Amino acid sequence: MTEVIHTRAQLASELAGVPGRIAVVMTMGALHEGHRALMRAARERSEFVLVTIFVNPLQFGPAEDFEKYPRTLEADVEACRAEGVAVVFAPSRDEVYPGGPPQVTMNAGPIGELLEGASRPGHFAGMLTVVEKLLMLTRADVAFFGEKDFQQLALIRRMVRDLELEVEIVGVPTVREPDGLAMSSRNRFLSPAERQAALALSRALRLGAAETDPESALATATKILEEEPSVRVDYLAVMSLDLGPVPAEGPARLLVAAKLGTTRLIDNVPLTLRGGALPGVQKTGF
Predict the structure, then answer these.
(1) Domain ranges of the chain
(2) Is 6 one of the catalytic residues?
(3) What ranges in the chain are assigned the alpha helix state H?
(4) Is 3-172 in CATH node 3.40.50.620?
(5) Which fold has domain 185-284?
(6) Given the residues 6, 32, 35, 123, the one annotated as active site
(7) Pairwise CA distance, residues 26 & 131, whole Å
(8) Cβ(88)–Cβ(11) under 8 Å?
(9) Please, are residues 201 and 194 in contact by the beta-carbon 8 Å criterion?
(10) Which tens digit of pLDDT belongs to each residue from 55-82?
């Protein structure tokens, strides 16, 4: 039976008698199959899985979709029950930030200024602040995050390492629709035409990742994206797994962000390089 709780006091009471490891999946709700994959991965590692549902205002910019972000708590709880989640923690803003907007927040550092950070100033400071707060409140032993938000995952891993937090961070591969589109809570905002055009993102990444050097990967992906005029690319980049310099050989990541109408989507795929070393390679604004 899944317990739904809303306060810190209830959370502390639920956690008091938990034997073994606490596995946490942090979400902003509007749960889809990608979130359920995180829950299943968590269930493989722990008998006690806790899902947080909180639309965090700190990670939305002034022109972004905080008010429009879908809130579907009843359906979300049913999804959690179906996946065997023990507790859903769905706090209010005042419960998470009892003193109002925090005056002390996380600094995402140089990695947080790249890619999403360049397009969404302050986003990662807000994200890391709430993740660290929820890790402490939930007393998590292991936490699961999707690889679709790859820069977020890299920053959370870096925060945990730099601050010596005693929690294991597990990345779970991106879940896709049958036609290849990465699952996202924002997909519901796409018109039918935009939904079809959005397939250019996953197609560009898939073919770009078949290349073995960064420049060829970018060139291949760029050609496909430029053939879809309704896709407005924010960035297309090849980066190392920790978002540092691209390795001469070995695993790396090909990432893209683009707008279709008013909806901004991100996606990424792994690729294996066999060429020369370069700094992070990026194209923007096409």
Answers:
(1) 3-172, 185-284
(2) no
(3) 8-16, 33-45, 73-82, 93-96, 116-119, 123-138, 150-162, 192-197, 199-208, 214-226
(4) yes
(5) Pantoate--beta-alanine Ligase; Chain: A,domain 2 (3.30.1300)
(6) 35
(7) 8
(8) no
(9) no
(10) 999 999 887 878 888 899 999 999 999 9
